[in-house]
Every structure is written in C-alpha cells, then in structure tokens.
Write a structure and sequence with these properties.
Its EC number is 2.4.2.8. The protein has a six-stranded mixed beta sheet with strand order 4-3-2-5-6-7, with helices on both faces. A three-stranded antiparallel beta sheet has the order 1-9-8. It is α/β, with parallel strands linked by helices. The protein has a domain of 125 residues: Rossmann fold. Helix 2 crosses helix 3. The two termini are 21 Å apart. Bound molecules: 1-O-pyrophosphono-5-O-phosphono-alpha-D-ribofuranose (PRP) and hypoxanthine (HPA). 1-O-pyrophosphono-5-O-phosphono-alpha-D-ribofuranose binds next to strand 5 and helix 4.
Length: 182
C-alpha cells in the first residue's frame, strides 16, 4: 500500500460492484473456448503481464484446453496510483519468442500504453503473431492508436476499478469481483 493511501475499507464503502465472481468465471470459461478455436492446436507462449493479470491468467489458463508454454513480463505504469505515467519494465520475456504465437494476457486494457508496448516488444523479438487477451476493457476516447484486445471479457465504464487482480493503491487485488469507485 502506498504511503497515506486511503484504505480499502473506505473505498469499498463507496464503490459499486460491477461484475461478480460468478459472472467473471463464466466469462473466462467462454474466453477459453474462443482462444482454443483460434489457436487450433498450436502451442502458444502464454505471456502474463504481472502483476495485475495474475488472477485472470491463472483462471484463463485452466479454461484453455490447448497446450501452452508459460512465461511472464512485469511492466507497470500506475505503480500503486490511480493515474498512469511512464512504463517501467521490471522483467522482460525469458523464453525465445522467435516465430511463435504469443498470447499476451492482461487484466485491463485502459489507455493501452502497457499492452501496446509489450505487444511491440514481442514483435521486435520475432513473434509471428501476438494475440491479446484481457479480462476487461475500459470505454473512453483515450485509447492509444494501434492496440486492441482480440479476446476481451467485460466492458467497464470510465472509472477507476479494482478487484480480480487490479489494485486500489496496492490493496484489494484478491477481491473476487470487480468494483468501481463512484
Ligand atoms: O492500458 P493502460 O492505461 O496502460 O493500463 C493497463 C495496465 O495498468 C495496470 O498495470 P499497472 O501499471 O497498474 O501495474 P500492476 O499490473 O502491477 O498493477 C494493468 O495491469 C495493465 O497492465
Ligand atoms: O482502473 C484501473 N484500475 C486498476 N488498475 C488499472 N490500470 C489501468 N487502469 C486501471
């Protein structure tokens, strides 16, 4: 939790439940079937963007029947705040992406800076194609050009959200639902 951050209890008391655990589980199961159809038997590199994607990635991987090779990157631009800034790379991919299909997995497509940078990095490492899977996408007109999710679970209003991997000042990542600040 960042210094002087408001508490999770206070945030929850003034938050709206957007998607329940049950809704998200069934959404993720459906995403798994869509991804299987597109992979068509090809073993992709399942590249999780830590840390927010941790919970979604675990559930999504179990919903995909096609064999996968796991790897992860750690890139962050919010760093416990509710507004993003410059992207910091804390871990680059560990396996070779040359000629591979990469399934890039993240919790949220918000302004798109993070996924665009990670996707471009995968392509510069020789990935044959990069498919993007997100649990949620925020609706607003600030999305950077040239990035979109190929497999998205749910849509969000233009408000700060937390839970299901996403943090409120580094709190609340393990809440089993998605909440929005009012
Ligand atoms: O579309 P954008 O506006 O770039 O925002 C999306 C990114 O922001 C969050 O990461 P964050 O930087 O908060 O790091 P975290 O995953 O450790 O929470 C989230 O996990 C995405 O990776
Ligand atoms: O609304 C958000 N909540 C949590 N993490 C985020 N990263 C980008 N946008 C958000």
């Amino acid at each position: 939790m960042t210094k002087h951050a408001p508490t999770l209890t206070a945030a929850l008391a003034d938050a709206e439940l957007l998607y329940s655990h049950a809704e998200l589980e069934s959404t993720i199961a459906h995403l798994g079937r869509e991804i299987d159809a597109v992979l068509d038997g090809e073993c992709a590199v399942f590249l999780t963007v830590m840390q927010g994607a941790l919970i979604f990635a675990g559930q999504l991987a179990l919903a995909i029947r096609t064999d996968l090779e796991f790897d992860y990157v750690h890139a962050t631009r919010y760093r416990g705040e509710t507004k993003g800034s410059e992207l910091h790379w804390l871990r680059e991919p560990g396996v070779s992406l040359e000629g591979r299909t990469v399934l890039l997995v993240d919790d949220i497509l918000d302004e798109g800076h993070t996924l665009k940078a990670v996707r471009d990095d995968c392509l510069s490492r020789g990935a044959r194609r990069v498919l993007v899977a997100t649990l949620c996408t925020k609706r607003h007109d600030r999305l950077v050009e040239g990035i979109a999710s190929d497999f998205n679970g749910v849509e969000l209003p233009d408000r700060y959200v937390f839970g299901y991997g996403m943090d409120y000042h580094e709190q609340g990542r393990n809440l089993p639902a998605i909440y929005a600040l009012k």
